[in-house]
Each structure stands twice: as C-alpha cells, then as structure tokens.
C-alpha cells in the first residue's frame, strides 16, 4: 500500500466548491485547509501508478490550480529496506557511526 500527501491549491473564491468536489470524488481524504486556498489531502493506492492516476484526476477537478506531492510512503519499499538492514552484519551505516 502506498500513501502520499498532496497539497492542492485553489483560489480563495473556489475553496468551498473544490473541497466539496474532493470529498465527493472518492480520490482522497482531506486533512486540512486554510482560507487562502491550500488543501492538504492524502491519496492511497496499491501501486505508484494508482496514486498518479488519482493525483492527475485531482488536478483535473474544476477550480484546482495545482496539486503538488509533499511526501510519499511505500510499505513495500520500507519492508525491503528493513530486510536489508536486518540482514546486514552491522546494521548501523558507516555515515551514522560515532567516530569520536
């Protein structure tokens, strides 16, 4: 499962209608908005392609000026990184060692 945070930008005048369109779209969950037109949402997908499809659909909603990716989390990538660390003879990367 992938989860991404997206900042959706609209005009202050279109804020309420864009929020309503986002709520009814089924594309995302709304977590925050300000009076100037910034809306923070999360999108989920089984793959990165699923998330990109949803983000493009959000960009196409009436009144949306842009949608920018703020962060992305992939459960698969995290699991693979953890497995690599656990298999390592020394799980502390060289760059994080205290060399004093």
Query: In percent, how helical is the residue content?
Result: 25-40%
Radius of gyration: 18 Å
For the largest beta-sheet, the strand count, sense and barrel status come to: 4 strands, antiparallel
Order of helices and strands: EHEEHEH
CATH architecture: 2-Layer Sandwich
Helix/strand/pairing category = alpha+beta
* Number of E-type strands: 4
Q: What's the arrangement of strands in the largest beta sheet?
A: 2-3-1-4
Low-confidence segments: none
Structure description:
A hairpin with a 4-residue loop joins β2 and β3 (38-45). Helix content is 36%, strand content 33%. The protein is α+β, with helices and mostly antiparallel strands. The chain has a four-stranded antiparallel β-sheet with strand order 2-3-1-4.
